[in-house]
Amino acid sequence: MVLNSHQISFLVYSNPASSPWLVSCAHAPSTGADRSSFWSLLESTGNRFQGPWILIGDFNAILSSAEKKGGRNFGSPSHNSFVDFVHSNGLVDLGYVGNPFTWNNNRQGTHNIKERLDRGLSNHNWILLFLNALITHLPAIASDHNPLLLSTNNNRPNLPKPFNLRNFGRGISRAMQLLPKLGLL
Questions:
Q1: Own/partner pairs for 128-135, CB < 8 Å, 24+ apart?
Q2: Contact yes or no for 53/122 (Cβ under 8 A)
Q3: What is the C-alpha to C-alpha distance for residues 51 and 78, in angstroms, rounded to an integer?
Q4: Which among 24, 40, 10 is positioned nearest to 121, based on CA atoms?
Q5: What is the pLDDT of residues 91-128, one digit of tens each?
């Protein structure tokens, strides 16, 4: 297990139990200078484990201009250390269902900026284990980020399901009951 201020990495033993896979939950630093060392640390985590690997979380970076709306223009992908990290480690963006942007600065009008900072990435070995995996961008409720939901055995033809306000309210109610138990409220 790896644990520091920007990542938690652990092995998961599922079916088959002889094929553990590595999960790295990430929250990248917000400054570019700190992110460079973060990418190196994540890379060394992945290199120590040569099996199936998934990374999920807030990477505080985007891969292309299509993942940003508003604010300053996105620089060239060839000068982006996040793009370099993804390519040099043979990672694949797992895609998503839901809102295309996972972060919003919550400002109005021309000052509003939206970006896809949160995502799931994996290597090809992990994809071979979970061919039907799916990341869903859930609605942002009490944060400027949309939470991510990873489903490893998803039946894709059934998505997206229609929104049901009654079921949504039940889910919120249950979440509010759990937050104090988890020490989050």
A1: 128/52, 129/19, 129/21, 129/52, 132/156, 133/94, 134/94, 134/95, 134/96, 134/97, 134/159, 135/56, 135/94, 135/95, 135/96, 135/97
A2: yes
A3: 28
A4: 24
A5: 999 999 999 999 999 899 999 999 999 999 999 999 99
Q: What is the pTM of this model?
A: 0.78
Which residues, 6 or more positions from 151, have their beta carbon under 8 angstroms from its beta carbon? Answer: 132, 133, 134, 135, 136
Residue 130: name the closest of 103, 151, 116 by CA: 151
Phi, psi of 102 (to 5 degrees): -110, -5
For 4, the 3-state DSSP assignment is strand
CB 98 within 8 A of CB 52: no
Supply the DSSP string of 102-139, one letter for each residue.
Answer: SEE----GGG--EE--EEEEE-HHHHHH-TT-EEEEPP
Dig out the tokens for 43 from the structure: 């890379």
- Of the CA atoms within 13 Å of residue 65, those in its CB half-sphere come to 9
Both tokens assigned to 136: 């869903």
Which stretch of DSSP H or E encloses residue 7? strand 7-12
**61-64-67 Cα angle (round to 5):** 75
